[in-house]
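Retry 2 of 3 after timeout on previous attempt. Resubmitting structure tokens to design endpoint.
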């Protein structure tokens, strides 16, 4: 089977997707090879589970659930997982966090980005560092960033900047190179790729799949990411969710997987 990724939930529906499938702003992928199956993110609600049933997929026996970071559109569907599911994520996954706006030196919360989840029902594996999953997968752990950008604030009264330190990615080591699966890419695509190369010792990037966080990126950021990817020369770029129209326009030979699609590598 090599590597197969089934898009259980994404912002849009694929052109040939069944009418019963639901699209929601968020992401949920079922990632599988011959010996390991991983549910990567759960979207904002139970739609990923409804779509899985409609696609004839049983999620009760996946090897692990991986949560890329603590935003509601990636872990809001956790309550629909079976009790005792094995969940791998960063220790900060449940921290209260908000989108924020600063005006005249005053920071205000404008939208809650975290979600209320009772993680005590599950077999939680919290890790800040890389973690092997099965024979060919690795959870990246924290992704170093030289100058982290704040994407909001944590809950509380001190308006502590939130640079999404809890974000990690899933790495698949194939004979053709690394397949890197991202939730949102908040930590930056270049930082993500370099970290994956460092922890695996593999420089060749075969594919990048997931959200690239370019929806509201500046022209300079888009140019920088494009130049970096041209240097890396991945064979496949599959940008969805928060990649955005500008990201898909600027990046060479990119495809946009959507709800119901099946990707093979």
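Retry 2 succeeded. Sequence:
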């Amino acid at each position: 089977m090599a590597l197969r990724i089934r898009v259980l939930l994404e912002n849009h529906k694929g052109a040939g997707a069944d009418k019963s499938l639901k699209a929601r702003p968020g992401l949920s992928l079922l990632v599988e090879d011959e010996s390991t199956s991983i549910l990567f993110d759960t979207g904002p609600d139970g739609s990923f589970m409804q779509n899985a049933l409609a696609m004839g997929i049983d999620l009760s026996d996946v090897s692990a659930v991986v949560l890329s970071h603590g935003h509601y559109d990636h872990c809001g569907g956790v309550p629909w997982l079976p009790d005792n599911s094995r969940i791998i994520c960063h220790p900060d996954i449940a921290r209260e966090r908000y989108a924020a706006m600063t005006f005249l030196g005053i920071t205000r919360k404008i939208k809650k980005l975290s979600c209320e989840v009772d993680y005590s029902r599950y077999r939680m594996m919290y890790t800040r560092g890389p973690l092997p999953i099965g024979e060919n997968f690795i959870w990246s752990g924290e992704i170093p960033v030289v100058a982290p950008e704040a994407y909001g604030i944590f809950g509380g009264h001190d308006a502590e900047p939130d640079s999404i330190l809890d974000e990690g990615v899933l790495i698949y080591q194939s004979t053709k190179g690394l397949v890197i699966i991202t939730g949102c890419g908040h930590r930056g695509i270049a930082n993500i790729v370099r970290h994956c190369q460092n922890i695996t010792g593999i420089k060749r990037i075969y594919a990048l799949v997931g959200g690239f966080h370019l929806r509201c990126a500046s022209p300079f950021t888009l140019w920088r990411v494009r130049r970096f990817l041209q240097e890396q020369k991945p064979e496949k770029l599959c940008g969805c969710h928060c990649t955005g129209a500008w990201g898909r326009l600027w990046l060479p030979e990119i495809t946009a997987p959507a709800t119901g699609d099946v990707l093979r590598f």
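Attempt log closed. The CA atoms of residues 44 and 73 lie 4 Å apart.
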